[in-house]
Amino acid sequence: MTDASVTDNEYDAEFGDYFALLKPRVMTLVVFTAFVGLLLAPVQLHPFVGFCAILFIAVGGGASGALNMWWDADIDAVMRRTARRPVPSGRVTGNEALSIGLALSGFSVVMLGLATNWAAAALLAFTIFFYVVIYSMWLKRSTPQNIVIGGAAGAFPPVIGWMAATGSVALEPLLMFALIFLWTPPHFWALALFMRSDYDDAGVPMLTVTHGRRSTRRHILVYSVILAIFAVALGATAAGGPVYIVAAAGLNIWLLKGAWEIARRDEAMAEQDSYAVEKAFFKFSLLYLFLHFGALLVDAILRGVGLF
């Protein structure tokens, strides 16, 4: 990718444009899940060390976002929901995005290693590599399994947080990984159902494009069932507690209800109400992870003050 991939309508960038390169909304989820993973780890970590760990994980997540925007500037330019991003809109050049992404990648990995341990730093480095090279450069443009496999990149933060505290992995962070990993496909496939023209125009082989919407609806249901099983299973570990168990039960009943409604609809029904069910499922999925990890956080706080 080069600066030729951006539009000619370039102008001086502001701070907000460079910050947007880091995908702050995605970074919010990265920070929150990494923080919960770190907090649930069965060790006492100095608060300043913990703050540094979360900061450098966040920077690494932002670096991934900048590198993704550099590489995907051409397809971002033809998709409605991404056309106003800093690079395709011309507010930031591709070379600037690449330089920022590389610099922040190296900084975040080295600083996380110095602040905590090199196992966590190595996993952060692998996460950045996986998102940029494996997902963005390879899977996204070559296979309808792009979201399925590529979802691993967004699932690593709680594991990195846990490793930053302990230097090792355990069942709890692996189940947190599975929760995010299995959530990603139905979340994005629901979006693809009512934004299919974007992926058609950009030539991205999303499942809706390669296998059709009927198949996509079935896939959403199957993945939602598997997701619900793993979400509830997390409540049976030391990380879970009464708040999480109640939250997971309610959230996953709602998830399965929404997935079933999507699976039983056809395109005529969806077009008649402007994809209201699919849009509602997508909006719910935006809250799904935050509420699960929020419940884990509440249980951890309650345990910390000795309430159970």
From TrEMBL:
The transmembrane residues are 26-42, 48-71, 92-112, 118-139, 146-165, 177-199, 220-237, 243-260, 281-302
Is the keyword Transferase assigned to this protein?
Answer: yes
Example GO CC term: the record gives:
plasma membrane
Q: Which Gene3D superfamilies match?
A: UbiA prenyltransferase (1.10.357.140)
Q: What is this protein called?
A: Protoheme IX farnesyltransferase
Pfam families cross-referenced by the UniProt entry: UbiA
Q: Which PANTHER family match?
A: 4-HYDROXYBENZOATE SOLANESYLTRANSFERASE, PROTOHEME IX FARNESYLTRANSFERASE, MITOCHONDRIAL
Question: What's the catalysed reaction?
Answer: heme b + (2E,6E)-farnesyl diphosphate + H2O = Fe(II)-heme o + diphosphate
Provide the alphabetized UniProt keywords. Answer: Cell membrane, Heme biosynthesis, Membrane, Transferase, Transmembrane, Transmembrane helix
* Stored CDD domains: PT_UbiA_Cox10
The pathway it acts in is: Porphyrin-containing compound metabolism; heme O biosynthesis; heme O from protoheme: step 1/1
Q: GO annotations under biological process?
A: heme O biosynthetic process
Q: Where in the cell is it found?
A: Cell membrane
Q: Which family does it belong to?
A: Belongs to the UbiA prenyltransferase family. Protoheme IX farnesyltransferase subfamily.
Coiled-coil annotated spans = none
Give me the gene this protein comes from. Answer: ctaB
Q: What class of enzyme is it?
A: transferase
Tagged with keyword S-adenosyl-L-methionine: no
Give the way it sits in the membrane.
Answer: Multi-pass membrane protein
Q: What does this protein do?
A: Converts heme B (protoheme IX) to heme O by substitution of the vinyl group on carbon 2 of heme B porphyrin ring with a hydroxyethyl farnesyl side group.
Q: Which residues form the signal peptide?
A: none
The molecular function terms in GO held by this entry are:
protoheme IX farnesyltransferase activity
Q: How does it assemble?
A: Interacts with CtaA.
UniProt xrefs under PROSITE patterns: UBIA
Source domain of life is: Bacteria
Q: What is its EC number?
A: 2.5.1.141
